[in-house]
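Q: Given only this backbone (250 positions), what sequence would you predict?
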């Protein structure tokens, strides 16, 4: 019917504010962010060090609470959710890869990746098959029995990405997921993100790498806790697509 209301965006924020106050002067990390992410959209966030990008992602993933402002996921207000309800969202609907690795250090690579699927109710066979597929896609076959401490930084990043994607979340929040990767590792990660995007899942990717940002549908420049620019990359003006990144050479 023509008068049906439009579906709500996947994610919307209004007036998000986060200030850290510890010793010394308070850090106004996020100073009023209004943001809308539609289903399936691939959005890159760039900006200088200290601009507040990681803080924004932590707020959107429920790892920190805003001082003020609101967050809606699929039209439902979630900013006041308890830790436990956020944990369920992160298990089922929002995959997160943070800047500093967050693997469980005393679990093997395989168990790190399978854990979220098992917690979400998959059986062991499904969890294993999904894990095998992701490790192969990320060039990490043979590492399943390793402990995180036995992997390089780049390998740990890819395991963290596999873990974030294993439950097919609607939204992936990724903070510099290629930060310590060489160009081969970067290509593998981008290929996986591209596949994820093609399945209609949304990505919010923080990156300092302009080549990666140019693969997104939209680039948000974050500066001093605010959105300084928000550009949709149309044909001919950027948005060269993931294929341009897949061609990167060392
Ligand atoms: N836990 C914390 N306690 C106090 N201040 C913090 C904390 N985390 C971040 N900050 C401050 O908040 C501001 C924003 O930090 P944030 O980590 O969000 O920046 P960023 O854009 O992710 O930077 P980078 O590109 O270096 O990762 C900075 O001034 C930082 O020093
Ligand atoms: Mg950061």
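A: Predicted residues:
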């Amino acid at each position: 019917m023509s008068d049906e209301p439009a579906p709500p965006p996947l994610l919307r924020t209004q007036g998000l504010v986060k200030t850290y106050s510890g010793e010394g002067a308070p850090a106004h990390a996020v100073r009023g962010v209004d943001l809308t992410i539609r289903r399936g959209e691939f959005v890159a966030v760039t900006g200088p060090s200290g601009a507040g990008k990681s803080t924004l992602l932590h707020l959107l993933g429920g790892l920190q609470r805003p001082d003020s402002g609101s967050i809606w996921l699929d039209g439902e207000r979630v900013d006041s959710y308890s830790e436990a309800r956020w944990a369920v969202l992160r298990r089922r609907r929002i995959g997160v890869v943070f800047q500093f690795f967050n693997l469980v250090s005393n679990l093997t690579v395989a168990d790190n990746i399978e854990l979220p699927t098992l917690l979400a109710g998959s059986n062991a066979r499904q969890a294993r098959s999904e894990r095998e597929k992701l490790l192969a896609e990320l060039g990490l076959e043979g590492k399943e029995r390793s402990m995180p401490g036995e992997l390089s930084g780049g390998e740990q990043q890819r395991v963290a990405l596999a873990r974030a994607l294993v439950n097919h979340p609607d939204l992936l929040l990724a903070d510099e997921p290629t930060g310590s990767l060489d160009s081969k590792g970067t290509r593998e990660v981008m290929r996986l993100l591209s596949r994820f995007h093609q399945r209609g899942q949304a990505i919010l990717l923080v990156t300092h790498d302009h080549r990666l940002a140019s693969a997104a549908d939209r680039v948000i420049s974050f500066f001093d806790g605010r959105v300084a620019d928000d550009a949709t990359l149309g044909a001919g003006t950027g948005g060269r697509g993931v294929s341009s990144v897949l061609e990167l050479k060392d």
